[in-house]
Design a protein that fits this description.
227 residues, 7-stranded mixed beta sheet, 42% helix, alpha/beta, single chain, Rossmann fold
Length: 227
């Protein structure tokens, strides 16, 4: 088994299970043309996020890390009538491309893209009493994902789901001596996750068009839970 096989299987799954979507394709193309890094989620994972949010009936979604808005559109399309999604993005160029993609997708009245560092905009959301959110997707710089996760729990309710992407780093997460700040950020996050009694969590390794990585998922527990 090798990377070529992983990509081929991803493409096979997409051909069979993911219907063509012009606005999602346009979001990928415009992001490429704008020179954004090609690090958005795969179509298969994008639909997985869509299905998870849809299955739990999420009406309020918070995304940390917008990039070109590809995952934003997948999640926005999962919302029912009256639903709302807020996506936080630190890079002005990324936010501009994402805004155009969101508007092309017909989600202008559903999605709000907030520009600024998440460690600044997350307290603003709390001050504005924007929560609780039902579903969170964290796909931003890994150095601060422990802090982003903590804010997500603060802005959640019992039963909220939190997904954190890119937590395996092609296996580098095992290397305690790594000088990669992203790896060290993930390791700190995993240690924090292990000790957090507010949630029940797991993580999964994945392979595919995004190579070898994985994601963590957590559900916020009731205050009186003993799990």
């Amino acid at each position: 088994m090798n990377e070529a096989t992983w990509i081929a299987v991803d493409q096979y799954i997409a051909r069979h299970l993911i219907a063509p979507d012009a606005v999602l394709d346009a979001a990928l193309q415009s992001s490429l043309e704008a020179g954004l890094p090609p690090i958005q989620v795969s179509p298969c994972f994008g639909k997985a996020l869509h299905l998870m949010a849809r299955a739990m009936g999420a009406s309020r979604i918070l995304e940390i890390g917008t990039l070109g808005g590809y995952s934003t559109i997948w999640l926005g399309q999962a919302l029912g009538r009256g639903g709302r999604l807020i996506s936080l993005e630190a890079n002005p160029k990324h936010a501009e491309v994402a805004q155009a993609n969101v508007e092309r997708a017909g989600l202008r009245d559903v999605v709000e893209i907030r520009l600024g560092k998440a460690m600044d905009t997350l307290p603003e959301l709390a001050a504005e009493k924007m929560g609780p959110f039902d579903f969170f997707f964290i796909d931003a710089d890994k150095e601060h994902i422990a802090e982003y996760f903590d804010w997500a729990v603060r802005l959640s309710r019992p039963g909220s789901m939190i997904i954190v992407d890119n937590v395996v780093r092609e296996g580098a997460v095992l290397n305690a001596e790594s000088d990669d700040t992203a790896v060290q950020g993930v390791r700190r996050f995993m240690t924090r996750l292990q000790a957090d009694k507010r949630i029940s969590a797991t993580a999964m390794q994945t392979v595919g068009s995004k190579k070898y990585d994985g994601f963590a998922m957590a559900v916020v527990l009731p205050l009186d839970s003993t799990e």
